[in-house]
Amino acid sequence: MAIIKKFKAVKKNPNHLLGIQDLSFPEVSKILDEAKTFIKLNKSSSKKIDLLRGKTQINLFFEPSTRTQSSFELAGKRLGADVMSMNIVNSAIKKGETLIDTAMTLNAMHPDIIVIRHQDSGAPNLLSQKVNCAVINAGDGRREHPTQALLDALTIINRKGTVQGLKIAICGDILHSRVARSNIYLMNMMGAEINIVAPKTLLPHSIEKLGVKVFTDMKKGLDNCDIVMMLRLQNERMQGSFLPSAREYYEYFGLTPDKLKMAKKDALIMHPGPMNRGVEIDTNLADDINRSAIREQVELGVAVRMACLKIYCQSI
Amino acid sequence: MNKKYLINGRIIDPKNKIDEIGGLIIDEKGLIEASGKDVSNGNLPTNAEIIDLKKNILIPGLVDMRIFVGEPGYEYKENFRTLSDAALAGGVTSVVSMPNTSPVIDNVSMVDFLKRRGRDKSRINIFPAASLTKNADGNQMTEFGLLKRKGIAAFTDGNKSVQDPRLMSRIMNFASQSDSLIMQHVEDNSLSKGGLINEGEISTRLGLQGIPSLAEKIIVERDLAFLEEYFCRYHISQVSSEQTLKVIKKAKNEGKIFSTGVSINNLSLNENDIGDFKTFLKLSPPLRTEKDRTSLIEAINDNYIDVIVSDHKPEDEESKRLTFAQATTGAIGVETLLPLALELFHNKSVKLDKLIATLTSNPAKILGINKGNLDKGNDADICVLDINKPWVVKKNELKSKSKNTPIENRKLQGQILKTFVKGEKSFERTN
After folding, report:
1. Cβ-proximal residues to B91 (8 Å cutoff; 6+ apart), any chain
2. N or C: at which end does chain B have fewer Cβ atoms within 10 angstroms?
3. A123 and B323: CB-CB below 8 Å?
């Protein structure tokens, strides 16, 4: 039935972190600078401060997630916020409640910040229109994963000093990847040169219009690169056949020592996780602490999310 | 009924190539007695009803070849009464209703039901389309002969497309013997599977799966190949892309006979309008690029597109207040069809007589119905419009039961003042 619900007029107009596309360079710098101050705190013995004491953070994860969800949970707790993680599997969503109804229900509990991950692109935007609190996008469909890109930038700055002028190769399943999109926007904004390496069936339409060079030959794409970002092959998002086999994919697009030789000697390997070892990345390379920044990405992820929670909570 | 004299207007009748200052006389039976410059202000009988058109334009009532009505099954989205109110406010006096109801219009008894409901509840002419296949599921053809005898004007699976090439070829072969009109929604389901908007830079940025133009082109190419073998009355319901237009142009230039429609949405909006995931602009076919849009306008001017339709598809708020992927497809449009089309006249994209023809005489000719003209002796189905009146679209002022307009807050120029059906004044704007 057509029921037109009347919503209370939204009084507050908080800022939301919905995507890198909406951010300006000063906003990015502010988040990264703030994050740097939290790196130290996270390594100290007393990791908790009361910056967000009394604030309520709700994690609304519609897709299974280990690292992002725990990273956000930890970030909120370290800042002293009350963190609630909604278990969608048992929730009313499974009983047919719509996203907007869930949003209205949660909104009535007066949260200060909602962290959302959703399988549909644009879901955080829809949520942000209906609630009075700040919304942080923890990944929506294949559109954006802004905190992942920000933590990648922080990792690069930590290792290389700057993003400006670096040559970054983003390799793998670009079509289904929100991480790739957010990183393309962010690294472009920060002055990097970006190469995209993927089989043609996993390239989004008109991707070159986002300001990248496209390669289907991985060796050419990695040539003289400072950063090699590998993406996970998202088998769960694939409808129909995109590739002949994992074996063929690994042969042409998996990161192996042989292909890595094309990049700079000190090139850094990154991966947003979780990894498919032996499909997109050689297992020894993934574990090589001199080349791989994969664990550091996870570590800095907490700091970046603390910075985002702080900034967007205070924007209310 | 008294005789009505509509005087002091500009009469445009594309079928008869008339565009002149004059009037129109409606006789006691509601039929057109005379029209054009011969109907002047002098010698008016005293017992007749005189309607001063005040120099406004009088045209035949519009014929909209593609509307969805919720009866039966989805009355909460739109019923015949609300559809008819919306149509009349838009100057539309005849519509072809799509068969995608619940149950589907695929047999003679459903046609009887529909005609009865249409007659009792609506004040416009309803021409029901029946489905090409039983339950519109693309497996078994419907009874073209029997349905046509019941007065079905056209056959289509509505918002579905017949996928099986063997079945489609047989449909075209069989339909030709009953001279039935086949209207195909051109979309290859496997190419468009999971697709939400036009495939391109916008779909990449929004992270929404794209629908390639190829999905449309490939079905048009297939059906036009069949048309060579099995000639029948074939109509492409809606074309949306430049790529498909190339196929259509080539076929027309080779002398193939078929007709083509386009949705007003694809002529007035493009993929950029989707903006921040506006679900009211989730349409089928999808809004495409600005280049596609301008090539569609050009194709109207070059006579490759014959008809503009509203593709009126009422959807309740609940089915649109969802994420883009979950929201249903479609937008209402019958009430704003003419004012939105007039935008193309005001911005000098299409000449007025051409525009009116695509909304009146052309669809009537394709359907084989005697509507969309001001011929003497015909039902006086007419529309009077103020072509310059500026107004702003507000969804709550629209008469459809569902409010999913894709052009909320759009500033339009040109508004319908009066609509007559069978000589009866069925709508008059009061403000």
Report:
1. B59, B61, B62, B338, B383, B385, B416, B419
2. C
3. yes
Which of chain A's residues have a Cβ under 8 Å away from the Cβ of B206? 121-122, 143
Catalytic residue annotation of B: 311
pTM for the model stands at: 0.93
Interface contact flag, A2 B77, Cβ < 8 Å: yes
Beta bridge mates, B182: B155, B234
At the fourth CATH level, the homologous superfamily of domain B60-367 is: Metal-dependent hydrolases (3.20.20.140)
The residues that bridge with B234 in the sheet, in sequence order, are B182
User: What does the alpha-carbon distance between residue A118 and residue A115 come to, in Å, rounded to a whole number?
Assistant: 10
* DSSP calls for A119-170: SSTTHHHHHHTT-SSEEEEEEETTTB-HHHHHHHHHHHHHHHS-STT-EEEE
CA A113 to chain centre: 18
User: Sign of dihedral through CA atoms B385, B390, B80, B135?
Assistant: positive
The two structure tokens encoding residue B20: 């002149």
DSSP B213: T
Nearest Cα residue to A119 out of B319, B279, B194? B194
Mean pLDDT by 10-residue block, N- to C-terminus, for chain A (316 residues)? 44 79 95 96 91 95 90 97 82 72 90 95 94 96 97 97 97 96 98 97 96 97 97 76 89 96 96 91 91 94 97 81
| Parallel, antiparallel or unpaired: strands B57-60 and B382-392 | antiparallel
Q: Are B341 and B264 in contact (CB under 8 A)?
A: yes
**Cβ contacts of residue B127 below 8 Å, gap of 6+?**
B94, B95, B96, B97, B153, B154, B367, B369
* Cα–Cα distance measured from residue B332 to residue B68, given in angstroms and rounded to the nearest whole number: 9
A window 163-192, beta carbon within 8 A of B: 178, 181
Q: Which of B66, B39, B33 is nearest to B52 (CA)?
A: B39
Token look-up 């991985």 returns A218
